[in-house]
Design goal:
Elements (H helix, E strand, L loop, with lengths): L3 E7 L16 E2 L2 E2 L2 H10 L5 E4 L4 H7 L4 E4 L6 H10 L7 E6 L7 H14 L3 E7 L8 E4 L5 E5 L6 H4 L3 E10 H7 L15 H9 L3 E5 L12 H21 L3 E2 L5 E3 L4 E2 L4 E2 L3 E4 L3 E2 L4 E2 L4 E3 L2 E2 L4 E2 L3 E3 L2 E2 L4 E2 L4 E2 L4 E2 L4 E4 L2 E3 L2 E2 L4 E4 L2 E3 L1 E3 L4 E2 L4 E3 L9 E3 L4 E2 L4 E3 L2 E3 L4 E2 L4 E2 L7 E4 L4 E5 L2
The structure holds uridine-diphosphate-N-acetylglucosamine and calcium ion.
């Protein structure tokens, strides 16, 4: 039987975000904030976690999906009430309960493991995380007696000036013996603001002589709670530093990591060099020995080993090995470039396959095209793939040579080793080995 049950509190309104979206859905490095504690919860326990959500948070429930049980808190009557609602919803619940927040994305799994370890060694009623900070951040203060034992947690709004001066703060992460928690939550009394505070359980435990343990959080940054857009940006910056450091430790070079934006779902191979002002987004995977030059945005794309991409936008594309792109090109969804393809400047490719060694160096557009190997796409070539109603395919076979400024009016096919003259408007299929020219293009001679 799994020992640990996890409750993630995420019902708060997040008023100070001044947003139409629930707070916990705001992304940090490309991932909704709630994903961070949720992924930790899934890694720490095989028992389905409970996420406490607010009224009408269908979007939050959608994000959570089947991974966790969502419990609607209804009226938001405080952290104690939220945990009570979670436990009430569950009949078979593990003997230990870990409480996490949905808005504390920087908290590390290792930190929680330390908390669990202390809890399992001493087996107190409660083990909770504290942090020393000169900036109280509005957190509850951990009040201790003369012997240094925890006496209670006081919220800032209710603290005396002496208590306010305390620099040991309550992070808001707790591990409880579930039985103790279940029997003591109903003892909480509402505060003047109508809320039931989970933190009051500390004083209750002290009063009845139940042991309490604390674990000190060393990296203060982990305790950052996101309540405002300013804190959102702080969390983003911290997470970005963490992600970039991880990749540097794994053999990736960053010319200026402070100015490089790598989202949480990205993977990067060894000896790849990343220049400033690069955005690697979504489910992007970069191979080894690549150069990702300045001003590049790569989203949901797979880049093979040894590729060079500079000052370009790549979305939903697949690049095999040793492909060169840019500067100033745009690869759109469905682009697949085989080994050794060169895409130069001011080129756009959409939903097209370009075979090995094909070159498309200047001012061109390929849409819905299938291009063979060793093809040269001359400057200014355009696939006229849209007739105003539907999209039509273009096929260009191996080693064809498309002359500068050719318009390929789709659907159309250019045969193997065929050539088009500069300025041709190709409205009919070009047989293999033919040279066509003119408007509309007609066969001039056979080049094979
Ligand atoms: C809480 C702690 C405080 C601690 C601080 C750390 C209490 C009474 N105080 O204060 O000691 O220093 O966290 O961040 O617990 N939530 C619900 N339902 C509710 C109320 C809150 O799900 O009815 C959720 C929120 O969405 C949030 C978390 O619980 O994720 C914390 O709530 P919040 O109101 O931010 O607590 P603080 O006042 O910051
Ligand atoms: Ca808070």
């Amino acid at each position: 039987m799994e020992k640990l049950g996890i409750v993630i509190l995420a019902a708060g309104l997040g008023k100070r975000m001044n947003s139409k979206a629930p707070k916990v859905l705001h992304p940090i490095c490309g991932k909704p904030m709630l994903e961070y504690p949720l992924e930790i919860a899934l890694a720490l326990s095989s028992h389905k976690p409970i996420v406490v959500i607010g009224h009408g948070s269908t979007e939050v429930a959608k994000l959570v999906g089947e991974r966790a049980t969502t419990v609607h808190q209804g009226e938001l009557l405080g952290t104690g009430h939220a945990v009570l609602k979670a436990l009430e919803s569950s009949t078979s619940w593990p003997p230990e309960t870990l409480v996490l927040y949905g808005d504390m994305p920087l908290l590390r799994k290792e930190t929680i493991e330390k908390l669990l370890e202390a809890h399992r060694k001493q087996k107190p009623a409660i083990t909770f995380l504290t942090v020393h900070s000169p900036d109280p951040m509005g957190f509850g203060r951990v009040v201790r007696d003369e012997k240094g034992n925890v006496a209670k947690i006081v919220e800032e709004a209710e603290a005396t000036s002496q208590e306010k001066a305390v620099t040991e703060l309550n992070v808001g992460v707790y591990c409880f013996q579930s039985e103790w928690l279940r029997s003591h939550l109903p003892l909480l009394k509402p505060h003047p603001n109508g809320e039931y505070y989970l933190t009051d359980l500390i004083a209750i435990a002290v009063e009845e002589g139940s042991p309490i343990e604390t674990v000190l959080l060393e990296d203060r940054e982990e305790a950052l709670g996101v309540n405002t857009r300013v804190q959102l940006a702080m969390a983003e910056a911290a997470m970005r530093r963490r992600i970039n450091r991880y990749w540097m430790e794994n053999g990736v070079s960053f010319i200026n990591p402070e100015a490089t934006y790598v989202e949480a779902g990205v993977e990067i191979g060894r000896d790849t060099v990343i220049y400033p002002n690069v955005f690697l987004l979504g489910r992007t995977k970069i191979g080894e020995d690549c150069i990702i030059g300045p001003g590049t945005i790569i989203r949901d794309s797979e880049i093979g080993d040894g590729c060079v991409v500079e000052a370009s936008v790549v979305e939903g594309a697949t690049l095999e090995r040793e492909v060169k792109v840019g500067p100033f090109s745009h690869l759109r969804p469905g682009t697949h470039l085989a080994q050794g393809v060169h895409i130069g400047n001011f080129a756009e490719v959409k939903n097209s396959y370009l075979g090995p060694g094909t070159k498309m160096n200047h001012f061109s557009y390929l849409g819905d095209a299938t291009v063979g190997s060793g093809v040269n796409i001359g400057a200014g070539t355009i696939t006229c793939n849209f007739d105003g109603y539907t999209k039509h395919p273009t096929v260009i076979e191996d080693e064809a040579f498309i002359g500068s400024d050719t318009m390929l009016v789709a659907p159309v096919k250019v045969g193997k080793k065929a050539r088009t003259g500069a300025g041709s408007v190709v409205t009919r299929d070009v047989p293999p080995g033919a040279l066509v020219y003119g408007v509309p293009a007609k066969v001039k001679k056979w080049v094979l």
